[in-house]
Backbone:
């Protein structure tokens, strides 16, 4: 029965936070798929109040809570892979239910698409909130020396959609050329997403050239 523990202390040796996990049930199938049931125990000792989500405050103190988690992962050998996780239980002074998902697919011989996300429904005496995060990643390899990666992320805590795109070219062994584009847009405006007016944007190039002596 696997047991995991992660304890963090402050510089003066006081307990800051801790996480303990016991897996009473786990199964690995011949296909490579895995299923596990985890019992979790959390401890957090914030010295100051903090905003856990816009409008919801957690006061300083000592908090302990327990949760139950179920995880399922399909065979990584398949061209279509699914990961699912769900947990429920206490959360600080209230309750929370969480759902995590991930899907990876080899759409074409040189194209891999991945979708991931987390959903969290939290109910505390100081407030209620639903947190959502979604990510999309595309990897396309035109050749062994030229590939493109696009990464998109959205979360309703910051209310932003962020994009990172990278072109990587290897003109010859030991040399690399990168072209990277970053941008972000607000998603909470009444008029919709202002695609022509991003919050930030940058296009950066980098060249690493190997010179033989």
Residues:
């Amino acid at each position: 029965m696997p047991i995991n523990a992660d304890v963090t202390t402050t510089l003066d040796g006081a307990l800051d936070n801790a996480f303990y996990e016991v897996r009473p049930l786990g199964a690995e199938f011949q296909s490579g798929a895995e299923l596990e049931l985890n019992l979790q125990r959390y401890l957090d000792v914030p010295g100051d109040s903090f905003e856990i989500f816009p409008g919801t405050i957690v006061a300083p103190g000592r908090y302990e809570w327990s949760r139950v988690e179920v995880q399922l992962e399909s065979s990584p050998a398949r061209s279509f892979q699914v990961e699912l996780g769900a947990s429920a239980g206490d959360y600080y002074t209230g309750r929370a239910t969480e759902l995590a998902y991930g899907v990876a697919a080899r759409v074409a011989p040189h194209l891999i698409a991945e979708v991931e996300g987390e959903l969290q429904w939290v109910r505390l005496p100081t407030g209620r909130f639903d947190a959502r995060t979604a990510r999309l990643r595309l990897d396309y390899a035109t050749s062994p020396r030229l590939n493109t990666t696009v990464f998109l992320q959205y979360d309703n805590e910051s209310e932003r959609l962020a994009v990172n795109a990278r072109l990587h070219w290897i003109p010859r062994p030991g040399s690399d050329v990168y072209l990277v584009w970053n941008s972000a847009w607000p998603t909470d405006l009444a008029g919709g997403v202002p695609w022509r007016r991003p919050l930030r944007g940058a296009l950066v190039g980098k060249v690493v050239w190997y010179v033989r002596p």
User: Anything to note?
Assistant: The mean pLDDT is 94.
